[in-house]
């Protein structure tokens, strides 16, 4: 019984640490921020093809599996607030976990592109 309680306690601590570590921003908060003079930098971590089919205006495409190739760009923006999104959250989570230990200021867009589309918010296409 004590072992079970310890396991549950450890899992709760790990889970609560994940929530604290991964801050988020809502679609409305992002839209309001983008109208300000201190707009966040938006990072779309989906594939190049997904990005070209439609992305949030002003978003920079850095596919989650190409962080090293974009290291110079990321370093230029290290002191800025970065908002990260993908289609459903998995790739954004991987991207965030990779950069968090390096001291980047990261926010995860709540609901990612799926929620953005559900809310009928505007997209920009490169085609």
Note down, in words, how this protein is organized.
This protein is an alpha/beta fold and 127 residues long. The protein has one domain: Rhodanese-like domain (Oxidized Rhodanese, domain 1). The protein is 45% helix and 14% strand. It contains six helices and five strands. A five-stranded parallel β-sheet has the order 1-5-4-2-3. Helix 3 links the parallel strand 2 and strand 3. About 9% of the residues have low confidence.
Attribute tags:
single chain; alpha/beta; Oxidized Rhodanese, domain 1; 5-stranded parallel β-sheet
What is the secondary structure topology, with strand pairs?
Layout: H1 2-21, E1 24-25, H2 27-34, E2 41-44, H3 48-53, E3 60-61, H4 71-76, E4 81-85, H5 90-99, E5 105-109, H6 112-118
Parallel strand pairs: 1-5, 2-3, 2-4, 4-5
Q: Which class of secondary structure composition applies to the elements?
A: alpha/beta
Number of helices: 6
CATH class reads: Alpha Beta
Going by CATH, the architecture would be 3-Layer(aba) Sandwich
Global mean pLDDT:
88
Strand content: 5-15%
Helical amount:
40-55%
Radius of gyration: 16 Å
CATH H-level superfamily: Rhodanese-like domain
Query: What is the terminal separation in angstroms?
Result: 60 Å
User: Could you give a short account of the major beta sheet?
Assistant: 5 strands, parallel
Poorly predicted residue ranges: 11-21
What is the CATH topology classification name?
Oxidized Rhodanese, domain 1
The total count of strands amounts to: 5
Overall morphology: globular
